[in-house]
Amino acid sequence: MVNKHTQHSQHTRLSVTGPVECPYTGRDVLNTPALNKGSAFTKQERDQFDLHGLLPVHINTLDDQVSRAYQQFLRNPTDLAKNAFCTSLKDQNEVLYYKFLLQHISEAFGIIYTPTQGEAIENYSHEFRRPEGCFLDIDHPDQIEQRLALFGQPQDIDYIVVTDGESILGIGDQGTGGIGISVAKLTLMTLCAGIHPDRVVPVVLDTGTDRQTLLDDPLYMGNRFRRVRGQAYDDFMEIFVQSVKKLFPKAVLHFEDFGVKNARRILHKYQDVLPCFNDDIQGTGAVTLSAITAALKTLNTPIIDTRILIFGAGSAGLGIAEQITDHLVTKGLSYKEACSHIWLIDRFGLLTKESKGVSEGQLPYLVDTDLAQGINTLSLVDIIANFHPHILIGTSTQPGAFTEAAVKEMNKHVERPIIFPLSNPTRLHEAVPKDLLEWTQGSALVATGSPFPPVFNRIISENNNCFSFPGIGLGAVLCRASRITKNMIAASVDALSAISPILTDPNGGLLPNLHDIRTVSRTIAVAVIKQAVKDGIATVQNEKSPGTDEFIQIPTDDEALAVWVENQMWKPEYRPLHQVEEE
After folding, report:
1. pTM
2. I need a labelling partner for 283 at 20 to 30 A (CA). Which of 144, 467, 471, 527 fits?
């Protein structure tokens, strides 16, 4: 991730327009993914950078290269092989990689992210070829700052994704292989929101692993001891966060796939220390609430008139519950009243005041004993029969948990149930859309955690966080938000729900099409920036425009603000190379 030429050309290489300074010639240019154009180098560039003889004589366009890459992609026999091909392409030519992804996003998305990236992460140590990212291990906390500093100067980095690998994509503890989710999330930040690919850092905190198969694997590349917890873990995390704040004070820190015992408390501890975000909690909550809001708009039903049952009370389920609770409070309910609209089920059944071993995040949602009286708290059907939920959300990773009996029981009490089986990958879904629509005679409003084809001519939206976190992150980066607030997340929810296809097409999805993802991210970024300005936490106005003495001004007009955002989004286009002397 450290680019050898950072010191020479940070002011041009890290921009999104204009020439890119290049201190290399010959094979060094071809071996630098951020500079390599492969067969698309012009004759002038081949002359200038000594590339004749290193390339075939015919000059291709970027579109020619994408066409060739797509044919190569299709020849790979398995999804995991396609994932490896994409990784290889990224290692060779960044612009071509992202252009290929944008042009073939529907086919490639599930390859570079869930579900295939999960399989790649499981095989990380066996398929390892080239390291990418920053590896921080708990045995050397004194080296955290030194290792992070390798990735650039304070002005070089906009976005950092960090994981400790404990709860990866529904497949659990993957140890140091978790670096793969940090890399994948940053790929989406660039693909979906135009964050510059050389202004990001993927990080894994290697604190050990509790997965015995990894500990026993002679090829496993991480620390071979049980996960370190308690004070030593917290001290390690504190050094990391403070190092990020010191080294990259303008960067957004994105927490990803931490275990349920750490995710919420780490977010709450640091959310006022620096601009940070937990996608499993806030991103999942935001995109889910956006889909719910769109569904309720089609039904002309206020959310305060609904009851919500969440099957799965871990980080994702609690994140959704908290987002809905915050939203209900904005509609005039007290916090206690808002919580009463939501019931949670974990692996031990309905969470009630008599439940044992509940977490701090679950406490506000415990059902009063008298309300739970006579309910079989282990039976989803019985819980539904008594609670009459309008909305059923699955974050349990228990495949088939939403049975025909449970769904039909829900449909007895609610004419058009909203049902979101969100667990991923696909094999862990609580139900498949075809069954849900058949069991409800087509009345259910459905979104899923993984991609599914249309059912009965109805688009099934993938309730993917990519519709949420890239735009939130982009907005926070561009306005240099001092922190990421609940108001900013709420603004993203309103912006996303307002562009739901189902609002204009009854067969449309609850969330936009992937092909529109950059427009979606820009729309959300605009809303987030406006809210940050309103809340007084946008600090970019304190910075001067590059090369001038004028301070940056955030446009107040929506249209002008959208253009301002668009102009700062990196695009996969070949830009002229400008030769400079190597220092």
Report:
1. 0.93
2. 144
